[in-house]
Design goal:
The chain is globular. A hairpin with a 2-residue loop joins β2 and β3. It is an alpha+beta fold and 221 residues long. The chain has six helices and six strands; from the N terminus they run αβαβββαββααα. The termini are far apart. The longest helix has 14 residues.
């Protein structure tokens, strides 16, 4: 089994999670209203294909010789339940029950997809731990590119340079001349500047919510 180092950004998140595995501040949940015309079984199959092709979604963290490492688990299966609820039950579930802590060392998926078939509205719920994805790159790629293509039965665009490649390159850069020059540049750039933490509520482990709208192409039938 080949494992890979963690990115420095991943390592910080991992260490924060180690302090309190029960928090959800690094969850990146989203909910998408679906027209009744969307075939939920077909959408479920589309996400299963995405998980099969996007290995980062099957990331597992392990401790090797005291250091956290990561790899894509080819045997991992991500369950995608289809819930049948009333609209009120769906609203309560989305608000209070869908977002749950992820266990980074359990071997369980760190990517969660659920579908709700309700009376008037259907919903797609997605949650991913920030240790394996973010809301700027992975989330738009899933909803704008991968999901419509997989739903139509089209091939997904190949990923030529992924997270594991970047992590290895970052690890190999440490100690090189270019790395030392970059470190010296930023040390000089920020010399004498006092850094402060971002404003937030110290009594809450919840993160901030950002609203963004995205639309599937009209030909996604």
């Amino acid at each position: 089994m080949e494992t890979y180092p963690l990115l420095q950004s991943q390592l910080g998140i991992f260490m924060e999670w180690m302090k309190d595995p029960s928090v959800t501040q690094y969850n990146l949940p989203s909910r998408t209203h679906l027209p009744k015309s969307v075939d939920l079984n077909r959408l479920k199959a589309a996400f299963e294909e995405i998980v099969r092709q996007r290995k980062e979604l099957r990331t597992r963290f392990v401790i090797v010789d005291g250091d956290p490492r990561q790899y894509a688990d080819d045997e991992m299966r991500i369950p995608i339940p289809v819930h049948h609820m009333t609209d009120d039950e769906a609203a309560q579930y989305i608000e209070n029950r869908f977002v749950r802590p992820f266990d980074l060392l359990s071997g369980e998926p760190l990517f969660r997809v659920e579908l709700i078939e309700a009376g008037k509205e259907n919903w797609l719920l997605v949650d991913i731990h920030h240790a394996i994805g973010d809301g700027v790159t992975l989330a738009p790629n899933l909803t704008i590119y991968d999901m419509p293509a997989a739903y139509r039965g089209e091939a997904l665009e190949p990923v030529e340079y992924g997270m594991y490649d970047y992590a290895e390159d970052e690890q190999q850069s440490f100690g090189t001349d270019s790395y030392q020059r970059a470190a010296q540049y930023y040390q000089e750039k920020f010399a004498g500047i006092d850094f402060v933490s971002l404003a937030g509520n110290p009594d809450s482990h919840l993160g901030n919510m950002v609203r963004e709208s995205a639309f599937m192409p009209a030909d996604c039938k």
